[in-house]
Amino acid sequence: MGYFEWHEQPGYWRDVTRHFPSSTKLLDVGCGSAWLADHFADYTGVDGSPDAVEAAAAKGRKVLLADVDEPLPFDDDAFGGAILKDLLEHVRDPIAVVREVRRVVVPGGRVFASSPDAQRWVWDDYTHRRPFTRKAFRLLFADQGWIVERVGYESVAPGTSIVAARTPGNRRPFPLTALAWLPFWRRNVWLTATAPAPVAAPPRRR
After folding, report:
1. Residue 189, domain member (yes or no)
2. 168 assigned to some structural domain
3. Model pTM greater than 0.90?
């Protein structure tokens, strides 16, 4: 099984999609095989791997080849929402990536992001550059102008996807959600945040 087949849609896919209406004009940064395209009619994926783009194109999914460590090839306010799933642990400069996503998401638009918690297992993947604590993940987005709504943990322990696939609603069942708050449990940090509306200029005095 190849890398992108292994990282196809997880059993807990609704834990990601539930944060956005299906009508959202969605940007998926670091999209891999772009499985999220199956859930959003107006979807655009971006990935720096030619293999990922090829795998996505073979399934009819819209993905652009672009280095996510560089400015994104989109206009300001081009998308209604963005997903950065399991991405920021891989990039050279997470601050720049979060800032770029803020640029291309409309005011009031939402971002969902997840990355590994700061645990030893993170380093078993040699493509990882860093993990995040829950506090660091929140500050990463807040300091780039996002209004952080929720920050939490999600289970990524072996078997989580299999159990979720057999659970009505395709979400992690409550016991796994609760266990993810224990410091020894293999987990990601995740958050949702919104792009603030522009501040209206005060009326001019006459």
Report:
1. yes
2. yes
3. yes
Domain count, the chain: 1
Residue 206 lies in a domain: no
Q: Tell me the H-state helices in 44-152.
A: 50-57, 94-104, 134-142
Asked whether the CA dihedral 55, 113, 10, 128 is positive or negative, the reply is positive
In-domain check, residue 119: yes
Structure tokens at 93: 């400069």
Residue range(s) defining the domain that contains residue 74: 3-194
The pLDDT, as a whole number, for residue 8 is 83
Provide φ and ψ at 104, rounded to 5°: -90, -5
Q: What is the predicted pLDDT for the residue at 1?
A: 40
CB atoms within 10 A of CB 204: 5
Q: Residue 6 corresponds to which tokens in the numbers above? A: 């292994």
Cβ neighbours for 25, distance < 8 A, ≥ 6 positions apart: 42, 78, 79, 80, 81
Q: Which amino acid is at 47?
A: D
Backbone dihedral angles phi then psi of residue 188, each to the nearest 5 degrees: -105, 160
Kindly write down the DSSP assignment for every residue of 192-203, as one continuous string.
EEEPPPPPPPPP
pLDDT in tens, 1-53: 455 555 689 999 999 999 999 999 999 999 999 999 999 999 999 999 999 99
CATH number for 186: 3.40.50.150
A 10 A CB-CB count for 66 gives 17
Residue 46, number of CB atoms within 10 A of its CB = 23
Residue 146 to residue 108: CA distance in whole angstroms: 10
